[in-house]
Amino acid sequence: MFPKKVSIVEVGPRDGLQNEKLALTASQKIKLIELLSDTGLKRIEAGSFVSPKWVPQMANSGEVFKALNAREGIQYSALTPNLRGLEAAIESGVKEVAVFGAATESFSQKNINCSISESLKRFEAVFSMANENDIKVRGYVSCVMGCPYEGEVSPEAVSKVSKSMIDMGCYEVSLGDTIGVGTPLKTRLLLESVLNEVTVDKLAAHFHDTYGQALVNLYTALEYGVSTIDSAVAGLGGCPYAKGASGNVATEDVLYMLDGMGVSTGVDMKSLLKASSYISDTLGRAPISKVANALLAK
Ligand code: HMG
Ligand code: MG
Description:
By secondary structure, the protein is an alpha/beta fold. It has twelve helices and eight strands.
């Protein structure tokens, strides 16, 4: 029933840091990414090539990728909303990128300044250049269980965009509960619908913990066989275009749950806590993770 193995995609250096008031320097980001690289994580989203006017915290992503001592066997990825972003990513040595769309028109407009269908057109150009350069493309769909502007979101709207992204060439689609409003029932209804269009091996769960539901929603997704989970060390995160969206589910919390279920991840908690302490100290606050706080207090 549950997958035996789960691949954790660490999104803290991107999804987390994009929403912090304090913009980190490239060397601070690199230190965090290196500590994360010591944990056994195999996938780390390390930045994004978006407009610095829209998300100033990510403006130094090129510098980060260029100076990063990329480890063998670890995939470091970046968000690229358009060709301009992909070109900059390639120039910085990035080998995997992600395009990001949404299940609602309002969120699409606020986040990437275009409609859903225009976004898919932009992604086509990204796919074609990515293919030419042997770059893997992941896809995100935001607002899968609720939208800050439109409220309820139909699972069918999510299935439709997810299928389009897979048909266009994404090797995986990550389902973003951007504002963390999902519940286990909503997660179930969502997956019942999306699984009609996309096979489970191509799905990832990207849940924010705004309402404290992320772990139980992930448990529900695991019951459906989802075996890729996005999370952020120390519970960093949010989205600059979704007011009130708090952090991604903490990697420490996900790891503790999976370890307790006997699901293997290859990630070592002790090493993860080092990354958690480093970023929390740098930001001047405690980790937003019950597990991290409990373990660090021992
Ligand atoms: P636009 O204004 O429609 O684009 O923005 P444009 O093509 O008209 O360009 C406007 C300006 O941006 C120009 O500069 C371009 O050169 C520049 P200006 O002439 O004004 O000086 N520009 C760029 N600069 C750097 N890199 C680029 C780039 N493209 C254009 N790639 C655009 C469209 C997509 C660029 C903009 O809306 C944008 O950057 N949006 C990014 C928003 C973002 O990063 N949001 C957070 C990530 S998504 C997320 O967090 C959700 C997720 O975690 C899943 C979940 O939780 O649901 C993934
Ligand atoms: Mg997110």
